[in-house]
Amino acid sequence: MDVKLYKIRSVRSNQGKTTSIDLDLEFEGERAFVIWDSVTLGGFMLKARVEIDPLLLQKGAGRGFDFYYRGELVLPKPENN
Fold first, then answer.
1. Rg of the chain's alpha carbons, rounded to an integer?
2. In this structure, is residue 19 part of a structural domain?
3. Which of 7, 8, 20, 48 has its CA 20 to 30 A from that of 62?
């Protein structure tokens, strides 16, 4: 299955600090996912994806990204896994 990747920019809060973050974005039907991490294993690509609300996506007006996510992006912390 061929999946088209887009670039997304969002704002994330980490320990009281707000920072912008750029990630890959892919769609599966009407569902949207950011790619948090990926690794190649032989001929396979394993992806850690986080589902986001597609209604909060806005077409990107800036360079370097296709969409801006207007919601809060909460990514898992590796130390909690």
1. 13
2. yes
3. 48
**Is pTM beyond 0.85 here?**
no
The tally of domains found in the chain comes to 1
Please check whether residue 26 lies inside any domain of the structure: yes
The identity of residue 31, as a single letter, is R
Question: Which parts of the chain are beta strand (E)?
Answer: 5-14, 17-28, 31-41, 44-52, 57-59, 67-69
Look up the domain containing 39 and give its range. Answer: 5-73
At CB < 8 A and 24+ separation, what contacts does 57-64 make?
A: 57/8, 57/32, 60/7, 60/8, 60/9, 62/9, 64/7, 64/9, 64/22
On whether residue 33 sits in a domain, the answer given is yes
The percent of residues above 90 in pLDDT, for the chain, comes to: 44
pLDDT reading at 16 higher than 90: no
Count of residues in the chain: 81
| Domain assignment of residue 78, yes or no | no
